[in-house]
Design brief:
Blueprint (H helix, E strand, L loop, with lengths): L13 E15 L15 E12 L4 E13 L4 E16 L3 H30 L12 H14 L9
Helix pairs in contact: 1-2
Length: 160
């Protein structure tokens, strides 16, 4: 009960970003300066994204996005990159069955714009036009991972 005699409401759900960090950033332009010359064809760009999460306490979670990619023409690899960008999140007032999707969907969604900008800056600083990654559907990525979990003999673990 509150002081005015009304029932107290449950604490509102909270998702707080406590820290963000770059764990690893690598950019390779091994064929420079030849790779910076005008190319005859558009490069093929390949991107892979992975989400990993680990509980640090009952309410705090470490979440990391690993984004790897490259740009290739028929003749050569123009560039390669790898970024591991993470955050520490506090989640409170959320039902137990909602924590897993919140950690693996909402937390990466909050990290992604910062990781996207780091990659754009790295490609620009490497001598290429900035590579702006398309938005990621973390709900679809989560569903895909959860569909794979039973096939791999395990349930949905927090660490992916």
């Amino acid at each position: 009960m509150t002081t005015n005699g009304e029932p107290a409401l449950d604490a509102a759900p909270q998702l707080n970003v406590l820290a963000q960090y770059v764990r690893d950033l690598s950019f390779e332009n091994r064929n420079a300066p030849r790779s910076l010359m005008p190319q005859n064809d558009q490069p093929a760009i390949n991107i892979q994204i992975n989400v990993n999460a680990n509980p640090m306490s009952a309410e705090e979670f470490q979440v990391e996005l690993t984004i790897e990619g490259d740009a290739k023409t028929k003749e050569m690899t123009l560039f390669k990159f790898e970024l591991v960008f993470g955050g520490i999140f506090r989640i409170a007032g959320v039902p137990e069955d909602s924590i897993h999707p919140m950690v693996l969907i909402e937390c990466p969604r909050l990290l992604f714009p910062f990781a996207r900008q780091i990659i754009a800056n790295a490609t620009r600083d490497g001598g290429f036009p900035p590579l702006y990654l398309d938005p990621i559907d973390f709900v679809a990525l989560y569903r895909q991972r959860m569909a794979q979990a039973p096939a791999e003999g395990g349930g949905p673990a927090l660490t992916q």
